[in-house]
Every structure is written in C-alpha cells, then in structure tokens.
Write a structure and sequence with these properties.
Distance between the termini: 77 Å
Strand content: under 5%
Largest sheet: none
Number of strands: 0
CATH superfamily of the largest domain: Cytochrome c oxidase, subunit III, four-helix bundle
Shape: flat
CATH class of the largest domain: Mainly Alpha
CATH topology of the largest domain: Four Helix Bundle (Hemerythrin (Met), subunit A)
Number of helices: 7
Structural class: mainly alpha
Order of helices and strands: HHHHHHH
Helix content: over 70%
Length: 245
C-alpha cells in the first residue's frame, strides 16, 4: 500500500509542467496543494496561535515550579540549627488559604460559564468574587511571612527557609500578578464587551488561574501537609511555635 503526500504530488506536477527545470512552465494562478502552508491549509488563525503560545507559557511555568519543588525537597532538612518545617507551619491558617484559593477557582469557572451565555453582569460579579478570594489568600500568606520574619525565621536564616520562601513566595507572586490581570480584564470587559479578543483573554486567564490552583495543591501537600501533620501530633511537647527559639 503506497502513501501519497500532497506536497510530493505538487512537486511531480511541477516537474511534468516544466521537464527541463528552466522555470518556463505554465504560469498563472493555481490552487495551492494541501499541506503547502497556503490556502485553507495555511497558517492557523490568531486565536489558535495565541492559545498554543499560552499553553507553552503554562508548561514553562510548571517546569519552573518543578525546579523550586526539587530545590525544596533537597534543602528541607538543611535548617542550620534553625526552625524546621514542623515549627513554621500553621495548618489552621493554611486551611483558610487553601479554602479561599480553591473557592476562587470554582467561582472563576462560574465566571466563564456566564461568559459563554454573554451575561456581562454575572461575569463581572463572579470575576469580582474571584479577585476578592484571591486577595484573601494573598493577605493570609503575607501575614504568615510577616509573623515568621518577626520570630527570626527569615530566608537568610537557613537553606531550608530560603527554599520555603522561594517556593511559597513564587506562587504568591503569580497569584498577585493574576489579580492585576483580573482587574485589567474586568475593565476591558466593561468597556469593550464580549469581543472575540476579550473572550480569548478570559479563556487564558481561566487557564492561568486553574493552573495556580493545581500548583497550590502540590505545594500544600509537600510543604504544609507533610511538614505540619507531625507538628499537630507533638504540639503539646513543644515549648512554642518555634520550638523555644
């Protein structure tokens, strides 16, 4: 069974039209062959190119977070006599952080459902709720960092704390940038309505926000849950949140 490729057929057609290869074959418009990058099979629409590029961006972001996770896994035991993961994790606060972020992801999905039915009011309402829940998450994370710094658990204290602040802070920075993006999208939606490019940007924002939730689930499991559960079991034996430091 032979397989014929469109581009190969086009090359054979040109050879038959100009056997000497002198370039004096038949001229004039001709239908582009499939697979030649022209006509109906030519370059993809801008919408496809932008979507493809955004997926590449998300994948590169996941690779970056993977590097931070790997660094944390290697350095989590390098405390240099300072506080350990058991002593810096507050599971109660992290539970509220997780609830706020996961709820924001759910509401963000509702906003896109409203976008699909072209309801500007409900899209804006759900986007606003997404932003408020994201702001709650950032506020709780900042509170955590400030309390740790006040107790002397700063990034320069040990390699473990450097890895901890880098991983958690990188995620928090992404959420903060996402909030700025969200505010911009709300303003554009209000002014321009459901134009095609606005809907595409909303799709990209939804993908970005849900990707941050996926990263947080891994971060919560590796950093907080694995480091905080032993602390909950031994809290009565420890002199203080920092182990008497």
């Amino acid at each position: 069974m032979s397989i014929e490729f469109p581009a190969s057929r086009e090359a054979l057609r040109r050879r038959d039209a100009d056997p000497a290869g002198a370039g004096h074959g038949a001229h004039g418009p001709s239908e582009p062959a499939p697979g030649m990058g022209h006509g109906a099979t030519g370059p993809a629409a801008t919408r496809i190119i932008v979507g493809y590029g955004f997926w590449i961006f998300l994948l590169s972001d996941i690779v970056m977070f993977s590097c931070f996770f790997a660094a944390y896994a290697v350095l989590q035991g390098q405390t240099a006599g300072g506080p350990t993961a058991r002593q810096v994790v507050d599971l109660n606060r992290v539970a509220w952080e997780t609830t706020a972020l996961l709820a924001s992801s759910f509401v963000c999905g509702l906003s896109f459902a409203a976008t699909n039915v072209r309801s500007r009011l409900w899209t804006q309402v759900f986007l606003l709720l997404t932003g408020l829940l994201g702001a709650v998450f950032i506020a709780l994370e900042l509170q955590e960092f400030l309390e740790l710094a006040a107790r002397g658990a700063t990034p320069q204290r040990s390699a473990f704390l450097s890895a901890f602040y880098s991983l958690v802070g990188c995620h928090g920075l992404h959420v903060s940038v996402g909030l700025l993006w969200l505010g911009t999208m709300m303003a554009q939606l209000q002014v321009k309505g459901f134009r095609r490019e606005i809907v595409h940007r909303l799709i990209c924002f939804n993908l970005f926000w849900h990707a941050l939730d996926i990263v947080w689930v891994g971060l919560f499991t590796v950093v907080y849950l694995a480091g905080g559960l032993p602390a909950a079991a031994t809290a009565g034996m420890m002199p203080g949140p920092m182990g008497g430091m």
